[in-house]
Amino acid sequence: MTNSSDKIHQQLLQLATQAQKNAHAPYSNFKVGAAILDENNQQHASCNVENAAYPLGQCAEAGAISAMISSGNTQIKQILIVSPNDNFCPPCGGCRQKIAEFANDQTQVHLAKSNGEVKSVHFKDLLPLAFGFDKNEST
């Protein structure tokens, strides 16, 4: 990684970790934070918000996507998801499909443990046969 990408990863991790602190997870106590870097290099973050009327809650990734869209941006360059424990927390199936709507096959997905360890993958490896993803395939 270059110093520039290290700095971006650290910024996304810090943003996601801050959002994670605000998670509303009284039922699972599984607080997740997510941060996105969009096509204009703006950053957006959110946390999971549970609801007693399960499954009406919202995942952190979906909230970060909503924040990105509400700011007028439409493409995820990178997304980082921070776990509340010592395991990586990949996006659930629904969030993988939501990410696919605004990603391409080279979009970087960073998974962070609570200790700050980060594992990075290309989105195409996380959801190789995403519904409707062919619109984003590289040529």
What can you see in these coordinates?
- The chain has helices at about 5-20, 60-70, 95-100, 125, and strands at about 35-40, 45, 75-80, 110, 120.
- By secondary structure, the protein is an alpha+beta fold.
- About 30% of the residues lie in helices and about 20% in strands.
- It has a single domain (about 5-135), classed as 3-Layer(aba) Sandwich (Cytidine Deaminase, domain 2).
- The chain has a 5-stranded mixed β-sheet with strand order 2-1-3-4-5.
- The model has no long low-confidence stretch (mean pLDDT about 90).
- The chain is globular.
- This is Cytidine deaminase.
- Belongs to the cytidine and deoxycytidylate deaminase family.
- InterPro entries: APOBEC/CMP_deaminase_Zn-bd, CMP_dCMP_dom, Cyt/Deoxycyt_deaminase, Cyt_deam_tetra, Cytidine_deaminase-like.
- Keywords: Hydrolase, Metal-binding, Zinc.
